[in-house]
């Protein structure tokens, strides 16, 4: 008769190919059963019973544990959630006479011994029970199946509310095992990277530590390297849409701190990014923190200009995360109160060059009892500084909250400060309500009414190509009572198109020639503001010259004040910039004003001429210093 | 990477476009400019209209957001009523754009905007006011404009 043992072993070997048979006994084998419970197991590592730490102290806490275990043993217990536990080793021996007379011998063990011997004995005993219950028949497969099922909830320890206590000695090897197995499982998986949309093996992917989103390393490197090189720190975060928002919602609407959304330097290194890039990230983050703090004091040494040491924004040492520094601001404050000494808070030490100086007079440190005068700005600027200040004046708008300059590269004029996240208007730097920022462009009373898309192509000589400011046709409010028409005069805009010009035409009456009205105010280069009721119809103004003519006009100097809030229109006179000579004339005219109607007529005539010239792009000639020329343009005063 | 990703998304949008949306290239040789035809969603006053949009994918895509404008005039509080047809929608703001956002997401966000204008975030105040104060008049105006421009 064929040996039943042989048949059973063959079957087992077919089901579990990883089984290892003893070389000298075909009825004896070992197999490792993995312990990967469906939900993670909460594991506590109490200090070893005899107080001896076999493992070297990992941290300060583990060192203290030995001392404190007598008084308060429960306090320092570390708890971890493990998904993988070292596998259960099963040794099967089928003796002569199995299955009819003798039960199979099962021996269980784990390495390290994270399951107690008594519990393993219980499990072994269960094998005999099964053999008895099955009527002394083949039981090996049934028993192995039982063990596997038990492993799925970590032999009951994975159930909610239960914790598995494992001696401290095994902590490192168990944590290590968990990490290795988790990583191995991750590497075996395939992920669709949400950025390149390619399926990628886990080996070339990175799982975000906080949120678990997975992207391929190549895409992450490319994106973060780019963001950090460009200084766009806010985007160094998880790249899944709405990730931060969803996490905030999951936390019950509590707002997550910005620094928590941003990736930590250590995670960037894990991705991995180049060390230099991560160092730059840490440096920039520190710099942004210093710059957003108005109290930051900078080193007076011209070649250094580092920030003074501060407890609040500690200079990063290596690549540590600086985000946690905010927590100790309270301690700092209370500490200050206790030991306040007059003058001591003036001492500043540069974090870069260690120069000790006084934060009031910016001289070398003179001791606490020296009365010094605050330093006044010497006003000495290098050529380079001047040039960049000038550029900033022309092509940036400061944030109304933190004054950080912003330069628009494209898009609408609703800006969000890169530093403090204030919403503001690019044109006039006004603070905008985050809940409804566009209101600013929709209310007729603001100077930015209907100007949301001005400068759509960006601001600056080197930004964008199409400076689209003013291209958008201005809509004219149909209310005849309050005639305030903003006419985009194309004069200062290179490449601007002529189609703005017809906008001068009265609304609703397109056959009429342009109707300029006497009150004029030039608002920067862009806008001609015309107020007051309609005068009687004026003689027709000749057609504007062909568009090509206008496009060819030379670029004129840009006026830096074009975004300044427009002052209220001046009533009863002309206020034109860059025409001092004529302004004088006008003032005279005002002074002698007699017969308002006559003067108005004269004004109208001048305005007509001005607009006509503006259309021909000749109004520059108004600036002419030539007396004769100017005389021709004088407004006759009677 | 940019080219590969764009062609993948294009492939996807060509084979399984979001409902009510047709996609084709403006110029076969350039995968950065997409021509979108969006049907006015049912349950909106834009129903029956076919709206053309131009989607421009920058060379830095997907690291930088795409730009999208209505080429067909549309009477809507959140779209400028002019030849630009500009919109300010959150998903396209560079600080909320994420590289793993996809073009179908952008297109469905616009469809959603047609279904539910956000008058408090309006770029066309007149339309927003009408939307808030006289919904019937707004719907009529939107329908009329749809008939006029979006055939």
TrEMBL record, chain A:
> In what residue span(s) does the RING-type domain sit?
189-452, 193-238
Record-annotated RWD domain positions: 7-154
SMART domains per record:
IBR, RWD
Task: State the EC number(s).
Answer: 2.3.2.31
* Pathway connected to this protein: Protein modification; protein ubiquitination
Entry keyword Transferase = yes
Q: Where is the composition biased (Low complexity)?
A: 548-571, 587-597
Compositional bias ranges of the Pro residues kind:
533-547
Composition bias (Acidic residues) maps to: 319-332, 617-631
Q: Which Pfam families match?
A: IBR, IBR_2, RWD
InterPro entries on file: E3_UB_ligase_RBR, IBR_dom, Parkin-like_IBR, Rcat_RBR_RNF14, RWD_dom, TRIAD_supradom, UBQ-conjugating_enzyme/RWD, Znf_RING
Q: Does the keyword Repeat apply?
A: yes
Question: What Gene Ontology terms for biological process does this UniProt record contain?
Answer: protein ubiquitination
Span list, region Disordered: 313-335, 499-602, 617-638
GO function terms (MF aspect): ubiquitin protein ligase activity; zinc ion binding
**Family note:** Belongs to the RBR family. RNF14 subfamily.
State what protein this is by name. Answer: RBR-type E3 ubiquitin transferase
Record organism: Mollisia scopiformis (Conifer needle endophyte fungus)
UniProtKB/TrEMBL annotation, chain B:
**InterPro entries in alphabetical order:** Ub_conjugating_enzyme (IPR050113), UBC (IPR000608), UBQ-conjugating_enzyme/RWD (IPR016135)
GO terms (molecular function) for this protein are:
ATP binding; ubiquitin conjugating enzyme activity
Pfam families registered for this protein in UniProt:
UQ_con
Domain UBC core: start-end pairs? 1-151
Name the SMART domains on file: UBCc
Which superkingdom is the protein from?
A: Eukaryota
Keywords noted in UniProt: ATP-binding, Nucleotide-binding, Transferase, Ubl conjugation pathway
Write down the PANTHER family for this protein, in alphabetical order: UBIQUITIN-CONJUGATING ENZYME E2
Its name, as the record gives it, is E2 ubiquitin-conjugating enzyme
What organism does this protein naturally occur in?
Mollisia scopiformis
